[in-house]
Amino acid sequence: MNIYLFIILFSLIGTCLLGIISRQLNRKALSPDLPDEFSETFDADKYRKSQEYTKAGIGFENLSSICSTLLTVVFIILGGFNTLDLWAAGFGYGEIVTGLIFFAGLAILSDIISLPFSLYGTFVLEEKFGFNKTDLKTFIIDKLKGYLLGGIIGGIILSGVLLFFNATGAFAWLWCWVFTVFITLGIQYIAPTWILPLFNKFTPLEDGELKEKIEQFAATNGFELSGIYMIDGSKRSTKANAYFTGFGKKKRIALFDTLIESLSTDEIVAVLAHEVGHCKLGHIRKMILMSIINTGIVFLLMSFFLGNRELFAAFKMEQISVHAGLIFFALLYTPVSVVLSIFSNIRSRRHEFEADDFAAQTTGDPSMLISALKKLSASNLSNLTPHPFYVWLEYSHPPVLTRIKNLRAQK
């Protein structure tokens, strides 16, 4: 067997099996006994419902993973990439346009495969447990907007990458790196003003106690804001959230209307203090820097494989092209990506603890963040007893009980 084909198939199947094993361990770790910490937040029915939600999610993820992996393996073995490449080349355009047609065809095929799972997850699974507020019209419009944005942004990035790899020789990877970073940072800068409002309505937070306390906290801690907004998260889900968008002078606080409805003013300030902590402690800068470094390394490694005949032979390709090489390298890179994601999650969990500590110290009252975490866990039907291996493999945040224990140590 072609060594590249063996590595790719082994990686795809191995990643799928690893996910199934970790999820099954997570299922077995579910405890029938409600942790004492949550005795005032969860009643027996809600705790039972949270475990049923976890079990249903595990079954759904296993099925989705198995189907997508199986279809990908079959597509590779049957020479699907070659068929798609010949179809794209049949239009008679140059390398860049042909590459864009190739990626568009691949994206459409991928979306056709994922669509039934997306529909089931939204309108059956989330609906069953009372989370879904999305109607079919909103779902379709979101899809169309996603296609439009993906076509524009993805088209720009892919056109540049294809152009540089076809025209700039040995240092093509460097040009691709600089170009991609420039576009990505530009998107983050304009996203709060031009992109995110396409999906949600951003309403300036009304004057009142909540706005005053948020502004007071931000001013006290030297955190500059361009605005505080409430977004209509309830349009799609009952789950609550809050986040910052943009950077520099474009930083915005976005509060889901569901969050405002479910938490007290002091609890919301504590949640935002946690998010401010990420900014003040440099977590966002570090994340962006690591992403930039990783992108450069990926492009450098990619440059060594784009013309590799053995790699293309693994996919039964009749001709070598940059656009197909990008996909093949991404598949070959799968095991490295899995390992890097584990280390990224470890770093992210450490950052979450640090942001929790920041919130506890700057608000002077860790109990408010503890209370908020409990309420959010209850409203989102969170799994309170995840398996350590699943946490290590998948969690970007520490388990809520671990976070609460850490916060209680701040008193």
UniProtKB/TrEMBL annotation:
This protein's record includes keyword RNA-binding: no
Keywords: Endoplasmic reticulum, Hydrolase, Membrane, Metal-binding, Metalloprotease, Protease, Transmembrane, Transmembrane helix, Zinc
EC number: 3.4.24.84
Residue ranges occupied by any Peptidase M48 domain in the UniProt entry: 204-409
GO biological process: CAAX-box protein processing
Active-site residues from the entry: 275, 356
Record-stated family: Belongs to the peptidase M48 family.
Official protein name in the record: Ste24 endopeptidase
